[in-house]
Amino acid sequence: MIRIKARAPTTRGAVLPTLWGAVAVAYKYGCPLAQQTGLGARIVTSAVFLAVGTGLIFHVRRALLRELRQARRVARAAQSVVLRPLPPRLDGLNVAAAQLSAEHGASVGGDLYEAIATEHGVRVVMGDVRGHGLAALGTVAAVLGSFREAAHDEPELGSVLRRLERALARHLRERARAEHPAHGGADPDHPVAEEFVTVLLLEIGRDGELHALNCGHPWPYRISGARVEPLSRLEPLPPLGPFPLPDELVAESCGRLVPGDSLVLFTDGVEDARDVRGRFFSLPEVLREAVCDHPVSPQTVLRTVFAALLHHTAGSPTDDIALLVLRNERSREGYHSPGARDGDTCGSGVRARPATSHPQPTTHR
Questions:
Q1: What are the E-state strand segments in 216-339?
Q2: Each residue of 121-147: b (16+ CB within 10 Å) or e?
Q3: What is the pTM of this model?
Q4: Kind of pairing, strands 221-224 and 121-129?
Q5: pLDDT, tens digit, for every residue of 199-241?
Q6: Contact partners, residue 240, CB within 8 Å, separation at least 6
Q7: Which of 112, 155, 294, 339 is the most core-located residue (most Cβ within 10 A)?
């Protein structure tokens, strides 16, 4: 729990405005010049009151800036607790992650990510909560808190996703009751009922075998040498929240992440970013340029993509952005060469229809 030490109210903040007001009153009623109606006296009187007004404005502005800095410090502290920095290495995988807020100076957003090494493999979640601000941060905390427990407890990835669904539903019910205590149950017309979260779950086994479950989130890209391709082209499940999960929930088998390969996970703010001419950001093209000459670290990929995004949007992205890059640096012992790279895309699972909701970034929407 985050504890915020509140500043006790004092009279110091009222000293300067009182002093300026006393100066104005004393001049108006105690100075003979203020009683005169000549042009020179009026000019002097106007200058005195202008100085008083300017002083009050600067004092109020300074107080507001001080409160704004305090609020941003609290927001950063809350965000750092909920969205913890990832370790640079997890069970032989190099990891790098970062986020960028669409609002200048903002610290609280709706993007979420986490990577945890478990006995079942390295499990990763990437998601995007509808909305921004403290309400979105509360939903992020509920989903991530559930994932951090379920990732260790549940042997099946589908069971992890069901735990996230239950945690989200419980959080939204509690939030609806807190905002409208008169409502004893869920109100279908309440704004909370329209909340949803896109979620991508990945599991990377010790042999590099990949399994995934996707609820309305963009599929990550796999980088193999200089080749960049989507991890899957299958249609994702609906986002968590509006619709229940299917009764039968089987993780998709997505081949292997062999040593030297990387995965780039991202939120939809990346490929939805537009330039001044309305063109979408092409993440695959930027990734190919980043790795065309030689293999690069996840940190380098992260810096390259963020630099290209800021250049593409002229430094003003319209949506929050989060990126997570994993590179397999494990020994090649124990890995087989599948020849034609069987399993480059998911071949079976919950849904096996071609993707229609998330085409390539230069043509979608």
A1: 221-224, 227-230, 252-256, 262-266, 321-328
A2: bbbbbbbbbebbeebbbbbbbbbbebb
A3: 0.71
A4: unpaired
A5: 999 999 999 999 999 999 999 999 998 899 999 999 999 999 9
A6: 164, 165, 168, 196, 197, 198, 199, 215, 216
A7: 112
Strands 221-224 and 197-204: unpaired
DSSP 317-358: -SS-EEEEEEEE-S-STT----SS-TTSS--SSS--SBP-SS
**Letter for the amino acid at 36?**
Q
The length of the chain in residues reads 365
Q: What is the DSSP letter of 170?
A: H
Query: Hey, which CATH number is domain 84-328, 3.40.605.10, 3.20.20.140, 3.60.40.10, 3.40.50.300?
Result: 3.60.40.10
Distance CA 281, CA 275 (A): 8
Structure tokens, 52:
């008083």
Distance CA 120, CA 203 (A): 8
The one-letter amino acid code at 338 reads P
The answer to whether residues 309 and 318 touch, using CB atoms and an 8 Å cutoff, is: no
In the predicted structure, residue 47 carries a pLDDT above the cut 90: no
